[in-house]
What does this fold into?
Amino acid sequence: MKTRIFVTLKNGVLDPQGKAIHHALEGLGFTGVQDVRAGRLIELEHEDGLGQDQLEDMCKKLLANTVIENFEIES
Amino acid sequence: MRAAVIQFPGSNCDRDMVVAIRKVTGADTSLVWHGESALPDGLDLIAIPGGFSYGDYLRSGAMAARSPIMKAVINAARSGVPVLGVCNGFQILTESGLLPGALMRNAGIRFVCRNVRLKVENGQSIFTSQYDPGEEITIPVAHHDGNYFADEAQLDRLEGEGRVAFRYAEQVNGSARNIAGILNDAGNVLGMMPHPERMIEAAQGGSDGRRLFAGFVEGVIHEVA
It folds into this structure.
């Protein structure tokens, strides 16, 4: 079974990488983009019985830094 | 005096740190591999050096903070053993929860590698007692992720409790309130992005980092006496 975990910066946390990407898009002539936020996608291949609480625990203990990041578990 | 420098795969300032501690403090200093589960007995200082532990995978310092030796470092820090984290060491300390906040990508995206001017904010900690508060010193930085972040309440708390040890006296990486180094609430853990171990004698272009180690040994001797 596969679970995808999206890790994104919290609102209010400045995202220098997103800003640079936005700037580069504008440099390539793509207009109309208002903001860019960059995050991370982590794919876990695992046994079927893995519980939601275990996945959340993984996110809190390692996969996301909850000081600056949110996580979303998509199963 | 006894000191240990923790060595992770990807550490690259470990030997410089050992040399600085030995030269300035004369401490019996050993390198401890990250896979160990115990530290040498009777340590007066644990240093977490700079580098790119685990290739900065996931987040800078994230993997190192979960390595076996860090459990022992966290326990030692909580029992009052002084811990100094420099650069990647600072990132590891925030990732391990020993220091608040996080170190994010530099605001200008670029890796910054140059001497910077720092303002000493706290001249009373075990690490900074040989500096005068408000004094400007020059120490090199070399980092990609030195942009300190904490929420406003946390920043106010750090400032209110005198836990900002060093502040950049110039624009370097976009750090919140120009913070370059902070102390934990007990004052025995210091994390800083600039590298004092690279400024201990004239041959390195300056010696403003020397007093950090010298003040430290003075503190330990006073404690023993």
User: Anything to note?
Assistant: The helical segments of chain B are 14-25, 62-65, 68-78, 88-95, 152-160, 210-224. The two ends of chain B are 13 Å apart (CA to CA).
